[in-house]
Design goal:
Radius of gyration: 17 Å
Structural class: alpha/beta
Largest sheet: 7 strands, mixed
Strand order of the largest sheet: 5-4-1-6-12-8-13
Helix content: 25-40%
Shape: globular
């Protein structure tokens, strides 16, 4: 597979200091483990999933994390107070209405500031490759050209993933949606950088970030960067053991 070129990368440049951590989902695929705790608190490799994400954010230089909550919010909020460890944690409360990923971003936009920011799913688990994945993503951000930059992993290295992939990338790094009925070469990792521009003009209602991406793709302002390390889809109880075995093997 040929590697698409990075679009006007900025090595050593801007790294977002704010992140949105998406933690409000119901975790239905992780039942029965989520009967008494939210999915971000499910342990993998001895630690809650959200702690793995917070560690990566700290290592990249993120100073503040906005975390949305809905399902069993008191449990998650109490954990965040203990897990902050130098991060400023701000809770975006969705306990009255689950807004999905796009709506959750819209609700939190007043907390995210005016600069581009990281977004990471709270149930993500990844291992850095030769360089820090978040800093790699930031090095390829071009604010003049981009509204969204998604971290993607090659389909063959998307461990436990059962889908058909999500995107391909053209020679300039722009995203191309998977054609219906075909397998795409890259899987979205749940990590991205977004511009606040992308959140403008959307209603406060439940909807998927896919609608935001589709607008950005149509305008030629959605790009992909390729993750060089490991990534795991930890969406079901069965995937936990597989992930832990892979991590134990190094």
């Amino acid at each position: 597979m040929s590697r698409p070129r990075a679009y006007r990368p900025q090595p050593g440049g801007f790294v977002p200091t704010t992140a949105m951590v998406m933690a409000a989902g119901l975790g239905k695929r992780m039942r029965p483990l989520t009967a008494t705790r939210p999915k971000p608190l499910i342990e993998v490799a001895g630690r809650p999933l959200i702690d793995h994400v917070l560690d990566r954010l700290r290592a990249a230089g993120v100073a503040r994390a906005v975390v949305n909550v809905h399902y069993l919010p008191d449990l998650l909020t109490a954990h965040l107070l203990q897990a902050a460890r130098g991060l400023e944690i701000i809770v975006s409360d969705e306990r009255d209405r689950l807004l999905e990923t796009g709506g959750g971003l819209v609700k939190a936009r007043g907390l995210l500031g005016e600069a581009p920011f990281f977004v990471a799913n709270a149930d993500n688990l990844w291992v850095d490759g030769p360089v820090d994945a978040l800093r790699l993503l930031a090095s390829q951000w071009d604010d003049a050209a981009m509204d969204a930059l998604l971290l993607l992993v090659p389909y063959a290295r998307a461990h436990n993933h059962r889908g058909q992939g999500d995107f391909s990338i053209d020679r300039t790094g722009r995203l191309v949606r998977r054609p219906t009925g075909r397998v795409a070469p890259f899987v979205y990792t749940g990590v991205q950088i977004l511009s606040p521009r992308l959140l403008a003009d959307w209603p406060l209602e439940p909807f998927s970030t896919n609608r935001m991406w589709d607008r950005a793709i149509g305008e030629g302002r959605a790009f992909g960067a390729v993750h060089e390390g490991l990534w795991f889809d930890v969406g079901t109880p069965a995937a936990i053991a597989k992930t832990e075995a892979r991590l134990a093997d190094g």
